[in-house]
Design goal:
The protein has four helices and seven strands. By secondary structure, it is an alpha/beta fold. The protein has one domain: Rossmann fold, CATH 3.40.50. The two termini are about 20 Å apart.
Length: about 140
C-alpha cells in the first residue's frame, strides 16, 4: 500500500513529509507526494516541482525506494489530495496543519477538513515545522 502526503515547501509540508517518511520506513510502504499549489510571494500560485520535492526528501534523509511525486493545476487542495488517495489506493494520508491561537484550534482549514472527512483511509494531521527566521509560504492543507 501507499502513504499519500500533502506537500508544499512550508513548515506544514516539511512536517507532513517527515512524519510520512518515518511511518513509511517503519511499515515498508512507499510514498505518493501530492505536491499541491501554494502562493509563492515571488512567483505567485505554483507547486513544488519534482526535483524540489526530491531535494527536500534527500535533506530529510529519505531511504524509501518507492516515491512518486504527483502535481496538478487543481486549485482545490483537498480535492487534489483525495484524487491521489483514490489513484494509489492509499492506506494513510498525512497532512500538515498551521499552528493556530487557542481559539482557532477548534477550526480546521477548509482543505484539511475536506481531506479528514473525505478520505477513505486514516488521516494523520501533524503540526507545522516552522523554523524561526525562515519565511513560510501561505500553503494550506
Amino acid at each position: 500500500m501507499t502513504i499519500v502526503v500533502g506537500y508544499s515547501p512550508s513548515g506544514q509540508g516539511r512536517a507532513a513529509l517527515g512524519a510520512a517518511l518515518r511511518y513509511g520506513e517503519r511499515t515498508g510502504e512507499g510514498l505518493a507526494i501530492a505536491s499541491h499549489q501554494y502562493n509563492d510571494p515571488e512567483h505567485g500560485v505554483t507547486a513544488a516541482a519534482e526535483d524540489e520535492v526530491r531535494a527536500e526528501l534527500a535533506a530529510l534523509g529519505a531511504e524509501l525506494s518507492e516515491i512518486a511525486v504527483h502535481s496538478s493545476p487543481e486549485r482545490d487542495i483537498g480535492e487534489f489530495i483525495l484524487s491521489v488517495v483514490d489513484e494509489v489506493d492509499a492506506s494513510l494520508v498525512v497532512i500538515g496543519l498551521r499552528r493556530k491561537p487557542p481559539i482557532g484550534k477548534l477550526n480546521l482549514g477548509a482543505s484539511a477538513r475536506r481531506v479528514v472527512l473525505g478520505a477513505p483511509c486514516s488521516v494523520l494531521a501533524v503540526k507545522d515545522d516552522h523554523r524561526p527566521g525562515e519565511h513560510v509560504g501561505s500553503a494550506r492543507a
